[in-house]
């Protein structure tokens, strides 16, 4: 496949433009600038894909990148299922409340917190694996899977491909497990759609909260957040206007998302589902 | 600060060498190759740092990269505390059972799953945030924090800096919370040490399991793992020999790590600690 690096050019003008897009403002930030940093800052969520198949070698490349991420105690408690079958993608799209890009992307990766590999190894060797029955080990699997997936995303974007994470697979982990044949002690943490971005429906960089809201120096300072949220709401409304979206801002929509169990799209059942799927969660 | 991209050169010879190091074998893999992919595959865990301070702008750069990662429903349920104070780093090193690099690195980042920002916003606006009390929302915070941290790691490595994740902060989340002034509903998911790698004590790329153990095509195939583990154990023994480490292989050490609650370094108490720290985990 092509070895071109599709990352943005690393000029000073590009740096200012990238920061403006990322923060919806001109932050006075002294950031280093090279092709990798430019590529990271240029990330955008792609939901509109061309139907073309992916270049040969895409899967091998993204898995090698994913495996190169750190893994807690090198336990490698993650796996990934590559889904290309149209009927399977359609079923995953249903789980994700009909998100069309899940059916339309040529490749959907399902990232798994996988404690079953160690469990099976213990069984083969007649060794106890009771440590797997603790919430800590679910945490290890989820973090391992997330670090791996993000490395894959960075690699894919450097190859000119686009991605979108699909947390909505957690709306119904049992349906995903049935579709993909997942054994107990394996959770589909999220999906990742992969494809060529459709140039006719381009995606834009979404602004984030100002740095001083998420970055704490030395100690956590909760008082910082209040001040900045109004400015960020305004930046999000500008972004939404530019995208032809309703100008909802950020804070009202975010609060609506967490107002109660009924706003979690079925994910209020996650604990009970995990217990049924073999996770001890002690 | 310097804008040089320190990623490995993207020659065909470098590709073969990178795959050999990553898998401890010569896998027949058709991977795409550019500076970004080369940089990702060259990742190594750095535990030996020069004492020099970091270049100006390092923190701003890594946070901009971190904020550029995807965030579930754009809720941005993560924060990071930058710890540079020697006494605070020494205390974090104690929590991590005396890992010296935690005290020695010029910067230790503590990555937080942060549900308190939305909780505080809801309180200010007199809006219910009962959805935060579910295990799902801890998952959202942990995934958000991990994606952000991995982007930061990629950016730091492109600048020639080295990192090591410190999961051992979960040995005692309450000590970390007290040290950093974390409010309820905030968990220190892991630390990340950052510094200039010490060239006198170079780190090596650690081999990972063969691709077909972690990659499943269409459906999960548990039968794949057994075959490959013996070969991987041999690759790890070769790696360990080259590093002057005990040749323990992989599978025995991994099983020992999960044999029971006593092998979790105190993290068998994570659920109880999270509940005390305000997480509903419903």
From TrEMBL, chains A, B:
Keyword Signal on entry: no
InterPro entries linked to this entry: Flavin_OxRdtase_Frp, Nitroreductase, Nitroreductase-like
Residue stretches making up the Nitroreductase domain: 42-196
Pfam families, sorted: Nitroreductase (PF00881)
Domain of life of the source: Bacteria
SUPFAM superfamilies: FMN-dependent nitroreductase-like (SSF55469)
Sorted UniProt keywords: Flavoprotein, FMN, NADP, Oxidoreductase
Family: Belongs to the flavin oxidoreductase frp family.
PANTHER family on file: OXYGEN-INSENSITIVE NADPH NITROREDUCTASE
Protein name per Swiss-Prot or TrEMBL: NADPH-dependent oxidoreductase
Source organism: Methylobacterium ajmalii
């Amino acid at each position: 496949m092509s070895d071109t690096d599709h990352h943005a050019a690393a000029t000073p003008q590009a740096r200012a433009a990238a920061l403006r897009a990322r923060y919806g403002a001109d932050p006075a930030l002294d950031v280093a600038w090279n092709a990798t940093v430019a590529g990271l800052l240029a990330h955008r969520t792609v939901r509109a894909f061309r139907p073309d198949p992916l270049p040969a070698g895409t899967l091998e490349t993204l898995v090698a990148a994913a495996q190169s991420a750190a893994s807690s105690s090198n336990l490698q408690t993650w796996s990934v299922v590559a889904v290309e079958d149209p009927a399977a993608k359609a079923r995953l799209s249903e789980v994700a409340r009909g998100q069309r890009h899940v059916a339309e992307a040529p490749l959907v990766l399902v990232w798994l917190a996988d404690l079953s590999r160690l469990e099976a190894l213990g069984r083969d060797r007649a060794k106890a694996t009771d440590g797997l029955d603790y919430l800590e080990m679910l945490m290890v699997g989820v973090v391992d899977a997330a670090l791996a997936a993000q490395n894959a995303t960075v690699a894919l974007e450097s190859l000119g491909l686009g991605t979108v994470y699909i947390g909505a697979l957690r709306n119904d982990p049992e349906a995903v497990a049935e579709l993909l044949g997942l054994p107990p002690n394996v959770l589909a943490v999220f999906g990742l759609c992969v494809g060529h971005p459709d140039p006719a429906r381009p995606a834009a960089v979404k602004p984030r909260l100002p740095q001083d809201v998420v970055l704490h120096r030395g100690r956590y300072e909760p008082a910082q957040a209040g001040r900045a949220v109004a400015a960020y709401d305004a930046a999000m409304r500008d972004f939404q206007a530019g995208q032809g979206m309703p100008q909802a801002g950020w804070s009202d929509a975010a609060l609506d998302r967490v107002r109660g169990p009924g706003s979690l799209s079925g994910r209020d059942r996650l604990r009970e589902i995990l217990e049924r799927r073999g996770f001890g969660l002690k």
